[in-house]
């Protein structure tokens, strides 16, 4: 559905160089710190910035050769974009209809009610969370095959986030050939929604893993100096010096649980894995 190969973009103080794939029927997460390159990647995919190298394929075509009809199969949320504040939700109906052949007015209106979005209120009077929900709603209301969602849940409270995430799951269940690339700094969103995760740091992909594998097999070993010296380090991805000794990230948690039964070994959350991959050192 989406394939990025050797993408390069150079700015004065930042360089992006990454590759990733979003297969058909998958929800793929892109995670990293602010400034890591997530938004730049989305802009590159959409042709909003020029490339210094690499290729981007969407629907099996070079992204630069997509037709107007092809682009109707994209649903987009960008973190720093939105609608004119002087429009009301009802004003978006004729705009969306004119842009997308498959825009579903009935679905849009029912979801607007579900999301608690008043039809006659100007968008400038919306809260940050309401604006975020509106952007997601517009992205999913024309039966797009590929959703590109850059920080779509920013500004949402827990209940609103759950509503949006449930809507995205329903959207995927309706058509097994749809795909989603989503970025988020909220790890719980990624853990509960995504099939696989790419971690990006300083413009480079530092880890790609299936979410189930990451949550099941990755772990943090809390080792005092004695244990650290005795530790088999062949499956240690990163280590970090701590006051008690070392924290060690592994992708073979079960191996260490079986061979070091008295060691303190914790499951690795997405946040912890990100932190260790960024702050930890290779052995």
TrEMBL record:
Keywords linked to the UniProt accession: ATP-binding, Nucleotide-binding, Transport
InterPro entries: AAA+_ATPase, ABC_transporter-like_ATP-bd, ABC_Transporter_VariousFunc, P-loop_NTPase
Family matches, as PROSITE patterns: ABC_TRANSPORTER_2
Gene3D superfamilies membership: P-loop containing nucleotide triphosphate hydrolases
Stretches assigned to the ABC transporter domain: 2-227
UniProt-recorded Gene Ontology molecular function terms: ATP binding; ATP hydrolysis activity
PANTHER family reported for this sequence: ABC TRANSPORTER ATP-BINDING COMPONENT (PTHR42939:SF3), ABC TRANSPORTER ATP-BINDING PROTEIN ALBC-RELATED (PTHR42939)
Protein name stated in the entry: ABC transporter ATP-binding protein
Organism for this UniProt entry: Candidatus Choladousia intestinavium
Organism placement in taxonomy: Bacteria, Bacillati, Bacillota, Clostridia, Lachnospirales
């Amino acid at each position: 559905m989406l394939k990025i190969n050797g993408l390069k973009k150079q700015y004065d103080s930042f360089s992006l160089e990454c590759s990733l794939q979003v297969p058909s029927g998958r929800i793929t997460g892109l995670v990293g710190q602010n400034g890591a390159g997530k938004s730049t990647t989305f802009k590159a995919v959409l042709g909003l910035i020029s490339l210094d190298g690499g290729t981007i394929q969407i629907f099996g075509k070079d992204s630069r050769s997509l037709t107007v009809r092809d682009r109707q199969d994209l649903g987009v949320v960008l973190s720093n974009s939105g609608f004119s504040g002087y429009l009301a939700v009802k004003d978006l109906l004729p705009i969306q209809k004119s842009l997308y052949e498959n825009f579903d007015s009935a679905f849009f209106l029912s979801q607007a009610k579900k999301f608690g979005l008043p039809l006659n209120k100007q968008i400038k009077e919306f809260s940050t969370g309401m604006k975020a929900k509106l952007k997601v709603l517009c992205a999913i209301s024309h039966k797009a095959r590929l959703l590109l969602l850059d920080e779509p849940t920013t500004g949402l409270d827990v209940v609103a986030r759950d509503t949006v995430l449930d809507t995205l799951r329903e959207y995927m269940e309706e058509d097994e050939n749809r795909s989603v690339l989503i970025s988020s700094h909220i790890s719980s969103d990624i853990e509960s929604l995504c099939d696989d995760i790419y971690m990006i740091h300083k413009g480079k992909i530092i880890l790609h893993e299936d979410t189930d594998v990451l949550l099941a097999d990755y772990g943090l070993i809390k080792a005092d100096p004695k244990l650290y010296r005795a530790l088999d380090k062949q499956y240690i991805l990163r280590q970090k010096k701590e006051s008690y000794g070392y924290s060690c990230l592994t992708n073979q948690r079960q191996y260490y649980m079986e061979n070091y039964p008295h060691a303190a070994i914790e499951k690795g959350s997405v946040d912890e894995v990100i932190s260790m991959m960024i702050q930890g050192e290779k052995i």
